[in-house]
Amino acid sequence: MTMPETRTRIVWDYAPAPESPDHVRLRDSYGLFIDGDFRDPVDGTRVPTLNPATEGPVAEVAFAGPGDLRRAVEAARRAQPAWAALSGLERGKYLFRIARLIQERARELAIVESMDGGKPVRESRDVDVPLAAAHFFYYAGWADKLSYGVGGRSVEPLGVAAQIVPWNFPLLMAAWKLAPALACGNTSVLKPAETTPLTALMLAEILQEAELPPGVVNIVPGLGAAGAALVRQPDIDKVAFTGSTAVGKDIQAALAGRGVPLTLELGGKSANIVFEDAALDQAVEGIVNGIFFNQGHVCCAGSRLLIQESVADTVIGKLWERMGRLRVGDPLDKNTDVGAINSREQLERIRSLVSAGEEEGAVRRTVDCELPERGWWFAPTIFTEVAPAHRIAVEEIFGPVVSVTTFRTQAEAIEKANNSTYGLAAGIWTDKGAKAFEVARALRAGVVWQNTYNHFDPTAAFGGYKESGFGREGGPAGLRPYLRVS
Amino acid sequence: MIRRLPHVDRVGIEERAAVLGKRSIKTTAKQQGIRLAVSTVDLTTLEGADTAGKVRHLCAKAVCPAPTMPEVPSCAAVCVYPSLVGVARDALAGTGVKAASVATAFPSGQASLEVKLRDTEDAVAAGADEIDMVISREAFLAGDDHRVMEEIVRVKEACGDAHLKVIIETAELGSYDHVRHASMISMEAGADFIKTSTGKAASGATPGVVLVMLEAIRDYAERSGRAVGMKAAGGVSTSKAALHRLVLVKETLGDEWLTPDRFRFGASSLLNDLLMQYQKTQTGRYARPEDFSKE
Q: Which candidate, A347, A430, B72, B201, has a CA 20 to 30 Å from the CA of A454?
């Protein structure tokens, strides 16, 4: 009998655990999804969409020109009366079917979302895709109960909705837009973002498989200019936009005086407030989830961290230690916590704001981790000694960068949190229930999380104050922007 | 002073523990992880029906868990009642596997301090390298932190050179705040290891409980500079559960804690599941339970 060799140190590291893209049914080239079918663009172009982790092409996609947008709006217009005339029960059945098909193709969708956008597959698998399905399930249930959602009054759909979604949660944002619009009897022209069109086009295949009537949903990828042209189409009845505040203002100006209702979900610089009586280790987890989730490409990211001075050193120490344990790298590896930055352009923006922070005198610390050679990456970064006037305390960075400020009292925390042109979300960390409610009421933010952060649920309304936008998505409130109530 | 320890948020800690349960541990990582787990097992028998014969069998198993797979290391220790620790010591002599004994009126701890000290001295005199004591939950739940601490200090003295593992019996404490608090008291009082459970209570080393204790160890090490070990005992009976606990250690305390000097599993049935899963990584086929000896 050979005796085991006992006292050598056993080294244990996670082996690479990449999701295999082999089973993904991705086409080489996608047309524009108009009137129920993929079509060649009449005056658009075809461009490759890139994988931010490798800079290599994933597939080729048609971008819409002005004529294509016109065709898409016409198709949506033609389809609208019959769609609205269907009973709510029947519309609901289509939405249930779409939700189930999303679940069936969940693994594929998650992989493509990570390949096209750079987010870790753990997030696309556990957050983006299941929540997208959940939104369709949720609004499927509302389709035959619409008037109950608005206090028993009578309702009509608005008509054709132009919907523009960003690149940070491509499939999920498409679901947030499409599910309530369709449940209410509207038809849609959806424009995905230029860097992440693929999962929306896979959703188009799902709509075909669900036998959704042609024209009810049209999906037309394109540059920002295509979005600007879409909202200026004469024959639209509703615009819903999620994206930057600058573009939101342009859209609002374009719609002025046209009587087209508008929903805007824009940028943010959300405050995450840690009180001294908080469960500190869980607060640190919440800070990490608040700012490093999806590389910080989250409109409600907890990018302004406010810590009560008495615990600031402890919390920052714990946070820095925790940041060192984040696994940055291949988005398709199931053990990756932080993936690639979505585009070269976004990476440049993050870099420029971070240098501004250094120049203005804030103290920067960046995790010393190995980054892949190819692709666009930014290591998790924390700024301390940030003054409220610094650009990094005011402007949205939209990257894995958190700015820390301290406060002394509850009143000061509220004042500092509200001292922003934005008002999308906020987090409160305290073990005291009464304090949490008091602070939440005083905060001018659309979403306030207590002892958690970045938790999303289709039953809860989401939307902003001030320059973070108006209108709500999710919950019964999310029906309202798609209905004419009388 | 001590009652002002930071709180633990139940939802938050369980969420974090669950996320770490999703780490993908495959191929070589699985093999190495299982070998590491085996090397940290305190192979345990704590039955009224234990005999010298059974303990000798268990010792042989701990020294050489899988004769056909010599790359599988020995376990860390064999853990028995004080009356059998002499048998274990003799059977383990020269193997590097430690003899561990429970003591202090295990598992209830409902005895006078004198009896507990005598119990400990007996076990040490019989050759125990390690003592697993229980805290007085009676004192802890009555709010008498001082008595809990005092007992640990005295038992530690009685241990002499033997290492002291302090069992806080998490299932009886009622909240994560109490788990964290009892962990801190035990470390302040001189514990070399803190341990979740006796194995006799309703639940044991759940992921949330283990994570709370690991965070306490991390904070204590940061404050005092002293590295305290962790023993997860009770309810960890599968390889998957064991690897999950190792992930919690790796991502809370770091690789320095992934050694038998600083981490242990207290288990009986876990070992054979580890061996079955290890063999599967070698052969690609699932073994049968009867392929490995029970003890």
A: A347
